Amino acid sequence: MKDISSRRRFLAAGLVLPASAFASNSRLALMEGNPMKLSSSAPPGLQYRTLGKTRLRVTTVGFGCMLTSDPSVIERAVDLGINYYDSARVYQGGNNERMVGGALKSRRKSIILSSKSGATKKEGALENLNTSLKELGTDYLDIWYLHAKSHESEITDEWLEAQRLAKKEGKIRFSGLSTHGGHTSIIPAVVRHCNEIDVLLTSYNFTMEPVIEALLESADKAGLGIVGMKVMAGGFRKAKPGEKLYDTLKREGALLAALKWVIKNPHVHTTIPSITDMDQLDENLRAMTAPFNKNDEKTLMAQLEFIRPLYCRMCGECTGACPKGLPVADVLRFLTYSEGYGQFPLGREQFLELPNEVQQVRCNLCPTCSVECPHGVNVAERLTRAQEVFAC
Amino acid sequence: MLAILVFVLLSGFTVASAAPAPDCSLVPGWQQQGPSRSYDADNLFEYMDGNAEGYLVYQFVNMHGVTCQCGDDILLIDVSEMADPELAYGIFGANRDVRQPPEKIGMAGQVLPRRATFAKDKFYVEIGASPDKNHSAALRAFVSALDKRIEGQTSPPEAIGWFPKKDLVSDSVRMVPESVLGLRLLKRGYVGQYDFGKAFLVSETTPEAASQTIAKLKERIGQTTPARVGDEAFTGTDKYLFGVCVFRKGRVVAGVANLKPGRDGIAEATGFASQIP
């Protein structure tokens, strides 16, 4: 853990440039209730949602600039009407922000722009912000994220103070936090800080455990703007031949289906798929005009079928009850913490808080299980798995 | 017989070895802090969360790292293995400080006050330093030691040298791991920035494959005019690439794009083609 945070601190520090002053303060409010530009010049076929309490109107498909190497793709995306663009201080050693800034130079006023800082100290974060502004060629960011956090302890007073100062100085309009993992811990924490944090940027895709749905809903209800990333489950950069995910994604239209799957969730306001070329841009645009349908579901089914028996979605619709008093849904949730989110300590800690006699129950000793899941979770098998990993 | 077996085993071990593990004792006075770390493509996000894809796009294989301490100074040293030297050169180029010139360290490198990077063979080395001060002496010492430890290719990819020097923005030729010029059909190659616009180069596996790429490019651009450059060529205009002149020479597809008004794309492309063997 120490190494990880150190790494981020080092990366952030190594990219810091001298702060500079910014004179211009022109703003365009792409806000709900101020639909100028949008209603008059928005190209047809685009879908908009309001980004939570920011009231920003965003296209449901945005643009993740991390891997984009040619500015022409960004320029074309703006012309086609995509209005949300995301970069980070650390991307491509700082070169990404410069490229994005160059591409958006004449288009800044018509788009919503975000960047991120991995710094943990106030001074470092504000220095990062000044550098981001300089490299992006703008005097303000619409959203500034604390980058890649997965524990509440990482939402520090120092960082919140940096956000407050940046807002006060007009360098950012809204504050955000990005997370790739530890959702069950960090999203409720962001909800608790929703008076100080405006936007949640989170990984979200069809391969994730259903518990994420409830977390996003709670964040949306708290007024947070919600931005989805890793919406294509890492695509082929992550999936490898021979893996089930690879087989799913190589089906024609699978990546588009994956994006459509994400934006069908009304609690997700926009998305930032990494876009590297014009073809992908064109394909992603189609996600806004053609809703997720049966064919898309079929395309993704192999992976969904793979996940379904594994993860409890905590819907409370399980039939029957354990005669030995095992709180079935809870134990399945603990297993999701461990295997779905990589938080074994959290799962085990909660398991060990169960009454001792319940901890001693061994489901593999029962000939049949009296609890059934309407969504196909293999209850007995998963409970046995939980007992194997936690009760030792 | 035993000697042969030992030789084969040792050779096999050498060939199979992954990224050379960095070692704090490479420079006297430095001590390792905490355990060594290793990551592969499946778990790099645990270390590089938020930036892992920036490595995966260069076909990252694995990474070995250590944290070294000397007094209050701390260095994070990480050595990443990419799929091939071209990709190692590519990730170096993508992450280097483009306002500072690269140095001749391995294939290319840079030593800055708080950060040093270089690519050698299929390895990409990064060293970050803390606290905030000039660490270039320590960084250079570790870079030198690691450069000696890593064996293999020290010359940049050959294609870099094919870009004409005239009007080239200094050290601007970079490797692009996918979608050169933002076009998926130009899978992997190089782009250089010129006073007149851009030049690009993509090597296909065969002349026939290159010819097919030319045909697809023509189709994408729409109205084109044949030109006499290399084995086949055309000029055209694209809304985002502006004026272009694309040619094929053997299995190489190359050309110029984003031409500034008044610049002769055919002349620039002809000069480029003459550099390609």
Q: How does this structure look, described?
A:
The complex is a heterodimer of chains A (392) and B (277). With 392 residues, chain A is an alpha/beta fold. Helix content of chain A is 43%, strand content 11%. Chain A has an 8-stranded parallel β-sheet with strand order 3-4-5-6-7-8-9-10, with helices on one face. In chain A, strands 1-2 form a two-stranded antiparallel sheet. In chain A, a hairpin with a 6-residue loop joins strand 1 (48-50) and strand 2 (57-59). Chain A is globular and about 70 Å long. The two termini of chain A are 24 Å apart. Chain B has 277 residues and is α+β, with helices and mostly antiparallel strands. Chain B is 27% helix and 32% strand. In chain B, strand 9 (189-194) and strand 10 (197-203) form a beta hairpin. The relative contact order of chain B is 0.09. Chain A binds chain B through residues 2-4, 6-11, 13-14, 66-70, 72-73, 75-76, 88, 90-95, 98, 116, 118, 147-148, 150, 178, 180-181, 234, 237-238, 274, 276-280, and chain B through 34, 37, 41, 45-51, 53-54, 56-57, 65, 67, 74, 76, 94-98, 112, 114-115, 117, 128-130, 132, 176-184, 191, 239-241, 258.
Write the layout of secondary structure elements.
The complex is a heterodimer of chains A (about 400) and B (about 280).
Chain A: H1 2-14, H2 38-41, E1 48-50, E2 57-59, E3 63-64, H3 71-80, E4 84-86, H4 95-104, E5 112-117, H5 122-136, E6 141-146, H6 157-168, E7 172-179, H7 183-192, E8 199-203, H8 211-221, E9 225-229, H9 235-238, H10 244-249, H11 254-263, E10 270-271, H12 278-289, H13 294-307, H14 328-340, H15 344-352, H16 356-359, H17 379-390
Parallel strand pairs in A: 3-4, 4-5, 5-6, 6-7, 7-8, 8-9, 9-10
Antiparallel strand pairs in A: 1-2
Helix pairs in contact in A: 3-4, 4-5, 5-6, 7-8, 11-12, 11-13, 14-15, 14-17
Chain B: H1 2-16, E1 31-32, E2 37-40, H2 45-48, H3 53-56, E3 60-70, E4 73-82, H4 85-95, E5 108-111, E6 115-120, E7 123-130, H5 136-149, E8 174-176, E9 189-194, E10 197-203, H6 207-221, E11 224-227, E12 232-238, E13 242-249, E14 252-259, H7 265-275
Antiparallel strand pairs in B: 1-3, 2-3, 3-4, 4-7, 5-6, 6-7, 8-9, 9-10, 10-14, 11-12, 12-13, 13-14
